[in-house]
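A quick aside before the break. I want you to see a complete sequence-to-structure record at least once, exactly as it would be stored in a machine-readable document. Don't worry about memorizing anything.
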Amino acid sequence: MSSRRGRSRLTLDAAHIVVVHTYLAFSAFFSALIIGCVLHYRKIVKNGVAGYPEEWFPSVSATIGDWYPERNIFQILIALNSGPRFALVFLQYYLQRSAYSSLPGFLLFVGTLRTLSCGGWVYITSSDDHDWHDILMIMYIVCNIPWMFGSIAATPAQNTTSRKRKQRIAAAFWLALLPMIYFFIQHKVHRIPGAYTRYSFFEWSLIILDIMFDSVAASDFRAANLQISIGISLDSPTTRDSHNIANKANIDVAIEKANPVVNGKGDENPVTYPQQQVKTAKAPNKTSNLNAVANRLQPTVNFLCDLYLSFVHWSVFTSLTPTLFYFSVWELGIAGHEFSLLSTLSPLLLRYPVVLDVASMKIGRTLLHILTLFGLLAYASKNPLARLLIVAFANAALSIGVAVDWSAPVCGVGYQATITGLGFLLTSVSKHANHSNIPIWPIVNEASGGYNKTGIALACFAIYNIYTRSSPSDELPMEKKDPIATAPITARKYWILDAFGLGSLIFSLHSLLADPSTLIAWSWTGYPIKGPVPHLHGSLTHIAQAVGLLIPLVLSSLGSSWDPLTHPLWFVYGGLSTCVMYSYSDWLGYFGGLNLTVFLMSIIPVILFRAASSGSVAKTYSIAMLVVSLFYVTSVFTVAYAFVPGGQYFRERTNFILLAQFLLLAPAFRWPRSTLPPVTFTLSKSLRSRAQYSLAIMTILSLVTTVYRWPTRMPQPHRPGPRILRTGIWTVHFGIDNEGRDSQRRIRDLVRDMQLDVFGLLETDLHRPVFGNRDLTRVIVEDLGYYVDIGPGPNKHTWGAVLFSKFPIINSTHHLLPSPHGELAPAIHAVLDVFGTPVNVVVVHNGQEETPLDRELQSKEVARIMSETYPQPFIFLGYVVTKPHTPRPAPYEILVTDGRMHDIDQADLDRWCEYILYRGLYRTAYARVSRSTITDTELQIGQFQLPKYGHTVTNETEPARYLRAWREEMPVDHWFPDEYYQQRGGVRGHYYHVFNTPLYYKLPEAHLHFRLYLHPHYRCPVPPQTPLPLPRYRHLHCCPLLLRRFQLLLLRSPPPLQCSPFQRRTYRDLSNRSCHSVVRKNPRVTVLWA
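That is the input. The structure line, written in tokens, reads:
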């Protein structure tokens, strides 16, 4: 602050301008490189000599100048960078200028010309004008000669660090020119394929070295304590008007030096620069009140930024496995991409002191945050492999960052543990609010429920906040220095036990608590409902998580020790809760899960404290991440044992996985004769207050989300009048489409357009870390309104099956079909109340072709279930893997014959996986809809009509069931959407295929028997009070309408020619209105049923 009254100055370190220039330059070039490789990889690596695969790395010119949007993003960033670049040149001149040397003035001219030529080759690309692009590029390189050597010469000899850095970078720059020129000649003159890729490597190295050379100026500015001060005059004489204020305003931009620090040695060998001062304009100053408010809010803003970055870290970390296992499920086995899990072992690099030192610095942590941000930016890539590589790279940076944060001194572990727990809870709340997807995951975008751009913008603000904090103590808001709290951590002898405990805790949180409905899925048993419902009771999980985090916060306010959380009894409490969760179902099992939630969330500070006490950052945190990766793989093997070598040893061994998780947590507790020290650190009152407020807000948000999405009306069938039931079966490939995106909304759209009343989805058990712990039913249930049975939970070791119904589910039973060799086959047998008639439905996912015995036993079991309910109406919706009419032991004959069912169309021989069977219903339509890019299997649809209330099907012979019809011969209620005909282009890539149209079937005549009574006073072609003989009028078509619990008919075609005018009007009215309105308008007409 200036000493003059009424004057205030805003001071900015000149080194910050250099830092901004460096980040903008790197962001411009590398954003263009990443986006170009993701969107136009084969195009930008192609040149006049060869293309991919001979050329596989793009040149700078091809990356920045040929394609939208990378070219435009690059040019925008370069434009933003022009200001800091010119400022760097002018500040360097003012710092170096002297009355005894003309070198600074010459460097000012060269630097300006160099900057202008850079703008020339950047904005005039080789595709715009190749010659001018090359001329300006050569001019830029030529200008680098005097710029680099002149800058080195102008650097004071006392600043040895800066001088050496410039010398080394300049030497590398000019040495890299030699191979670059050589490979350019190989490409341009000799036209050798692949030479341009090698040329590109050296071209990119020149860009990197050039930016690094300019970044060394920050060291010069810091050594000279170069600052820019903007001063504002607030003097206000009584006779001053606005015009005079404008005339008297001025800005003081001062370049000052004071006690420069060189090589960390304080005042030793101070660098001498001439002091310069420049006068420019004046800006209004903030009032002291605003400064005071800002100062009070700053700790809260810092806390919120740390909390949001923790949310980003958990989001990036949990996105790795679903991004990775996209490839595994397509290969149905180990695809090799699983090795990307090893990216989390990056904390091994911290064994090098230089890496640990840099990562611990503010600039290093900022850089790691920026690199982690690439995990969010990966959503922009449409290539699943590119997305995986970017996410793996982001997780490598993330793992180093959290290792540095979590290994903080003891006074910071409590803060880091609180932020880590709150961030994890925030990810779970965000999934609850966003239909089981974290809104910033790279596997979602705007079309699938993502809010990626908003999340990235907030992350950038939080990273900026981290970088601009005045001191590291801002991150550790301790009210006072407690000698116990700030004592150094004593290294523990058995560090590997701490690593095991940390890895087990991370996996336990991810596998059980990442989504609030996972514990509910563990306890779900079906209808009638005897336990929690996934989309309605998930907030209870969040409340338990908040309670678990609140316990250490409360204990910290009572003293400096959290020792109760390390007592063996607390471990026993967690173990018993796990046993209850695993052994019981419904509310009792869920209650055990809630207690386990409290336990896991409460020991986060304990486990992080033990890991920080290990004394070895690199070994502890890399081993912990290795344990997490091993848990990921083994937990999948409990289900996917049939597809991986050695998987049979893990078959259905979830109990062993849970046991291993708890055994690895045990060493963190203070058992009898244990030499472990107590967990001793405290939290400030302000931090506890912010954390408690955060817990309350997140819990309230969860409850508000539940109330907002609580169903307000019962699901309604699409065609209640005609008593039509439209069913479907679809294998949805774990809710990941062919592009690696979440497919919930795409599935919903097709289900909505097809107006399905009852349908089954297969491969739906996603409550595992490898599938993102997602609930595939959320969007459909909340947007379209269905009753849902989510089928056997993740503790039943199946791939999952789900039943959706517009009709009330009276009862449902989950079956695990016999599977001696292959994967476990789930089945849901439900009884639905369809228009007052109980209808049985079974949704089945049978085994694969490689296990014929499994398929035979499973088919026999399903046939038994269907046969036992005969002659009740029954619909089979299943994944069978067999050819139609294949004899035993193949499933088809077993299901049809032994189950006493009818194939929906036995003439359809082009089937393999999905089948629809039925009995006790009239089938009226059958359609096969293409999958688009949602999955690898089509959607099959069967449409049925129930017999009249209180009646059964009267004729199930084959001729009666196969009365094929044109669509126009059927009532409109039976028609499928016209938009999905292939001739009309389909909708979103879906269309009717195989037959290119739905198949329609007439109802047997016995079902159409009716009597139309007219008043005897009017003439009629048949005797009064005599039923119309239906065979005489075969061209009449009708559909049923349920009215006042009686079944009536609406005539849909013209009346017979011999009818009287009144009778013609009656027929016309019956065709266009409900029977009730016609009867009310024409009291002489009565429609009754036999």
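Two observations worth writing down. The chain is about 50% helix and 10% strand. Residues 288-331 form the longest helix (44 residues). We'll return to this after the break.
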